[in-house]
């Protein structure tokens, strides 16, 4: 009976979705779909956008783009950024060490400083190891939109943007003062798996804009049993807690603006590097970000933005010392002071020039004399970096041409230049893009310190995209890509000593295709995406390779398909259904007791189905009630380590239900 | 068995998409709310909710909006008002400067820069219930009933009471209270 219910639930929901008669769209003041509800007073508060030469549509932009709106994030019932990124073609997740989860892009492990995550312009990548952590991390309830470049963005964003850029833009207050609040709780049949709460306060009066968001969340990575490669196992229920505290505040007075972000993320895990340990130890990622900038306008054609940034981070901070478990307290910190200047110049109606420069000083510290940086035998390790970029956009009747380059000068490495060129042609019924981009990444502090002679890595990416408008409201896009990284900086763990280290491998990369189909109507929004990659690592047996298989990378499914559909039934009710399919993948499951060699296994296809029903204006106006089901078929979701360091796969959560209340006063 | 359910899921989702795709088309590049012409079209549509034409005998069964000259506002009006009614009448939107067309209109939208070139004797339009909307930086005392103006990136409007009176239409007090300058 339980099985029948499990199978029938999505069908019943979807049947309802397909059968309901269209009624008037829900009351969303920001949507033109509901212009009947807009009063003259509302209209008088809307700011007109003046089309700038640099304001390009997704189809015109020189990049392969995915845009995700706040409405889509809300509709899909995303609990965090990881839930949102699951629906992006080519994106998938793998496990690192110490219970952490990282991102892979187009079949490549991007966790090692190859993806740039920006939250309101602040670079989230950690300054020591250049990593990002996912799972109950980066709250989504105050996001206005996410702009994702599914390819390189290094010619503007620098070395960390070699494979992708994820740009998060938070909401601003749209009226004198506003308040928004969210609380949610998720459960399985066994226990509460997450509890989150957030509050957002905003003020927008005269020339003063203030906004602050506070978020706290606790969750469990998994309720499964974890077994390491040597056969030791433990229940993850009480040994995989995750917590996150987050504050994002901004204050703008006229053209002067400032931002402060505090992000404290903690994972407790018994799965460390290879072996399991006797108890769950916390690994903490503490981050502070600050920015001050001023927007100058010189006439109508020139905009100048000088800015100052400060970043202080304590990533991968291990708390507690236990020689029996091989745990040593580690508390390294990094800080970055940076100054930048951005110029935007509309030279004519068809030519725009964007240029900028950023100089920073990175300084890493060890708080105790007993832990020294190996590379210089000191408690501090420091280097300077200056990046200069310029980009020219030339619009003409045949095609838009984007050409630019990023010049990088690092105090420890030779200077380098990374060029970019793109041709885009958009017509009413179709668009075509032909893109080439190079990126260059200098090693970060721990890349340097945990290696003998690490050198920068260089990536070339070629992309071709074509899109066709099938109907006014539906669009099909296809793209092909080729990625080649020379001297990739790779993290690995020595299985014998469990020491972590970095090396440059010879080359890695992938090629593949992606397709997206989008339907946007008054009441229905549907996004279908599919991506396929094939690895190519040259002749070398790389840490990312599957032995005897040159076509796929370790831990990463070659084929991924997603479907996300939301439907507004009436003013009060809307529904979402989404599924994510991953083809089978290969991971290390154990080691041979005698030879000590890694044993590779193929893990089954995965299907992750999520549904959400939203009841708008529940009990009182502007209070939304959301009931969501995640992984409702209870499939086994495996996060496999995408490099050969003998960490067993982490299993994700099974079927989970969530109840969320969201209030906004506008 | 699990995959059967998935295929059904996919099929039903696509089915509902196809159904909807055939049912309604609305979105387009000019449907952005912050687009100036879209916003002006919405202002015009909102004005009609505050104006009473009932005392005027209109010669046809349509609600006619005439836009002088080529303007994005025409496309926005067509896009927004498609399959709708104003004052219980189907809407016709035309671009024209001919007196014949204008005389049959309920709203005359005079696009920016064309008011001085408009070869129409305004006196001939008196009492015919024609709301003349302009989009000049300053209200045109001879022509405008309502002038839509842009200040600090936002739109607002001014009312010329004497021209409103001459036209024969009646406007609500709410519209007056929202106007920027009341003459």
How would you explain this protein's 3D organization?
The complex is a heterodimer of chains A (666) and B (183). By secondary structure, chain A is mostly beta strands. Chain A is globular. Chain A has a 22-stranded antiparallel barrel. Chain A has one domain (2-664): TonB-dependent receptor, beta-barrel domain (Maltoporin, Chain A), CATH 2.40.170.20. The two termini of chain A are 44 Å apart. In chain A, 7% of the residues lie in helices and 55% in strands. Chain B is of the alpha/beta class. In chain B, 34% of the residues lie in helices and 21% in strands. Chain B has helices at 2-23, 36-48, 72-81, 99-103, 161-167, 173-178; strands spanning 51-52, 63-68, 85-86, 89-95, 107-110, 131-134, 146-151, 154-159, 170-171. A seven-stranded mixed beta sheet of chain B has the order 3-4-2-5-6-7-8, sandwiched between helices. Chain B has a two-stranded antiparallel sheet with strand order 1-9. In chain B, a hairpin with a 2-residue loop joins β7 (146-151) and β8 (154-159). Chain B is globular. The N and C termini of chain B lie far apart (74 Å). The interface between A and B is large, with 48 and 46 residues.
Notable features of this structure?
heterodimer; A: 666 residues; mainly beta; 22-stranded antiparallel beta barrel; 7% helix; globular; B: alpha/beta; Rossmann fold; two-stranded antiparallel sheet; 21% strand
What's the arrangement of secondary structure elements?
The complex is a heterodimer of chains A (666) and B (183).
Chain A: H1 2-19, H2 40-44, E1 65-69, H3 70-76, H4 81-85, E2 91-95, E3 101-105, E4 108-109, E5 115-119, E6 122-123, E7 143-149, H5 154-157, E8 164-170, E9 177-187, E10 192-205, E11 208-220, E12 225-227, E13 233-235, E14 241-253, E15 256-271, E16 276-294, E17 296-298, E18 302-318, E19 333-346, E20 351-365, E21 380-395, E22 400-410, E23 413-426, E24 430-441, H6 445-449, E25 457-471, E26 474-486, E27 489-493, E28 500-504, E29 507-520, E30 524-535, E31 545-546, E32 549-553, E33 559-568, E34 573-582, E35 585-591, E36 598-603, E37 606-615, E38 623-630, E39 638-639, E40 650-651, E41 656-664
Parallel strand pairs in A: 5-8
Antiparallel strand pairs in A: 1-7, 2-3, 3-4, 5-6, 7-8, 9-10, 9-41, 10-11, 11-14, 12-13, 14-15, 15-16, 16-18, 17-18, 18-19, 19-20, 20-21, 21-22, 22-23, 23-24, 24-25, 25-26, 26-29, 27-28, 29-30, 30-33, 31-32, 33-34, 34-37, 35-36, 37-38, 38-41, 39-40
Chain B: H1 2-23, H2 36-48, E1 51-52, E2 63-68, H3 72-81, E3 85-86, E4 89-95, H4 99-103, E5 107-110, E6 131-134, E7 146-151, E8 154-159, H5 161-167, E9 170-171, H6 173-178
Parallel strand pairs in B: 2-4, 2-5, 5-6, 6-7
Antiparallel strand pairs in B: 1-9, 3-4, 7-8
């Amino acid at each position: 009976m339980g099985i029948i219910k499990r199978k029938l639930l999505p069908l019943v929901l979807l049947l309802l979705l397909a059968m309901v008669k269209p009624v008037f769209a829900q009351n969303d003041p920001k949507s033109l779909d509901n212009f009947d509800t807009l009063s003259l007073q509302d209209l008088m508060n809307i700011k007109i956008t003046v089309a700038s030469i640099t304001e390009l549509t997704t189809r015109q932009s020189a990049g392969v783009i995915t845009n995700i709106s706040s409405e889509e994030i809300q509709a899909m019932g995303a609990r965090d950024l990881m839930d949102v990124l699951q629906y992006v073609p080519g994106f998938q997740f793998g496990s690192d060490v110490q219970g952490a989860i990282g991102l892979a892009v187009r079949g490549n492990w991007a966790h090692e400083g190859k993806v740039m995550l920006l939250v309101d312009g602040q670079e989230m990548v950690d300054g020591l190891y250049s990593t990002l952590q996912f799972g109950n991390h980066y709250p989504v309830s105050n996001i206005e939109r996410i702009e994702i470049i599914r390819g390189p963005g290094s010619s503007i964003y620098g070395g960390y943007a070699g494979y992708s850029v994820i740009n998060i833009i938070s909401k601003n207050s749209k009226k004198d003062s506003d308040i928004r609040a969210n609380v949610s709780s998720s459960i399985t049949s066994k226990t509460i798996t997450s509890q989150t709460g957030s509050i957002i306060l905003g003020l927008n009066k005269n020339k003063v804009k203030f906004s602050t968001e506070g978020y706290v969340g606790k969750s469990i990575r998994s309720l499964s049993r974890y077994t390491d490669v040597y056969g030791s196992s433990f229940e993850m229920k009480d040994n995989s807690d995750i917590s996150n505290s987050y504050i994002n505040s901004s204050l703008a007075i006229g053209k002067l603006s400032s931002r402060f972000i505090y992000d404290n993320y903690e994972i407790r895990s018994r799965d460390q590097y290879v072996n399991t340990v006797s108890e769950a130890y916390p690994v903490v990622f503490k981050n502070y970000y600050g920015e001050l900038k001023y927007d100058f306008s010189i006439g109508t054609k020139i905009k100048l933005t000088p800015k100052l940034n400060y970043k202080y981070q304590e990533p991968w901070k291990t708390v507690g010392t236990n020689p029996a478990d091989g745990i040593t307290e580690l508390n390294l910190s990094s800080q970055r002071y940076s100054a930048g200047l951005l110029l935007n110049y509309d030279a004519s109606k068809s030519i725009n020039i964007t240029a900028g420069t950023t100089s920073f000083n990175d300084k890493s510290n060890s708080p105790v004399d007993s832990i020294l940086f190996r590379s210089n035998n000191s408690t501090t390790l420091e280097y300077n970096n200056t990046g200069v970029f310029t980009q020219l956009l030339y619009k003409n009747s045949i095609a838009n041409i984007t050409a630019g380059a990023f010049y990088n000068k690092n105090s420890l490495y030779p200077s380098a230049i990374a060029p970019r060129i793109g041709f885009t042609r958009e017509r009413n019924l179709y668009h075509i893009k032909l893109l080439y981009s190079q990126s260059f990444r200098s090693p970060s502090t721990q890349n340097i310190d945990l290696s003998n002679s690490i050198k920068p890595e260089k990536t070339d990416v070629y992309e071709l995209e074509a899109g066709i408008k099938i109907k006014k409201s539906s669009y099909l896009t296809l793209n092909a890509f080729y990625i080649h990284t020379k001297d990739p900086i790779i993290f690995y763990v020595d299985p014998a000593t469990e020491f972590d280290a970095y090396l440059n491998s010879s080359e890695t990369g992938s090629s593949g295709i992606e397709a997206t189909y989008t339907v946007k109507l008054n009441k229905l929004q549907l996004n279908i995406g599919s991506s396929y990659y094939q690895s190519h690592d040259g002749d070398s047996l790389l840490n990312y390779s599957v032995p005897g298989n040159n076509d796929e990378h370790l831990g990463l499914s070659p084929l991924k398909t997603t479907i996300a559909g939301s439907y507004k039934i009436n003013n009060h009710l809307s529904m979402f259904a989404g599924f994510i399919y991953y083809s089978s993948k290969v991971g290390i499951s154990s080691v041979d007791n005698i030879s000590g060699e890694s044993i590779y296994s193929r893990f089954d296809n995965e299907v992750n189905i999520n549904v959400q029903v939203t009841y708008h204006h529940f009990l009182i106006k502007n209070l939304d009630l959301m009931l969501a089901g995640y992984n409702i078929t209870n499939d086994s979701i495996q996060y496999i380590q995408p490099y050969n360091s003998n960490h067993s796969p982490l299993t994700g959560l099974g079927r989970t239900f969530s109840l969320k209340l969201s209030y906004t006063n506008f | 068995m699990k995959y059967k359910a998935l295929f059904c899921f996919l099929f039903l989702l696509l089915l509902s998409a196809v159904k909807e795709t055939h049912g309604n088309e609305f979105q387009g590049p000019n449907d952005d709310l912050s687009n100036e012409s879209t916003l002006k079209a919405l202002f015009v549509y909102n004005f009609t909710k505050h104006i009473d034409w009932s005392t005027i005998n209109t010669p046809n069964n349509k609600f006619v909006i005439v836009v002088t000259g080529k303007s994005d506002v025409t496309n926005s009006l067509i896009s927004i008002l498609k399959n709708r009614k104003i004052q219980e009448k189907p809407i016709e939107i035309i671009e024209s400067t001919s007196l014949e067309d204008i005389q049959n209109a309920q709203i005359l939208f005079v696009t920016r820069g064309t008011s001085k070139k408009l070869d129409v004797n305004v006196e001939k339009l008196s009492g015919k219930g024609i709301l003349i909307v302009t989009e000049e930086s300053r209200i045109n005392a001879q022509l405008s009933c309502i002038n839509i103006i842009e200040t600090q990136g936002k739109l607002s409007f001014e009312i010329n009471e004497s021209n409103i009176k001459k036209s024969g239409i009646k406007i609500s007090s709410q519209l007056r209270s929202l106007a920027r300058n009341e003459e």
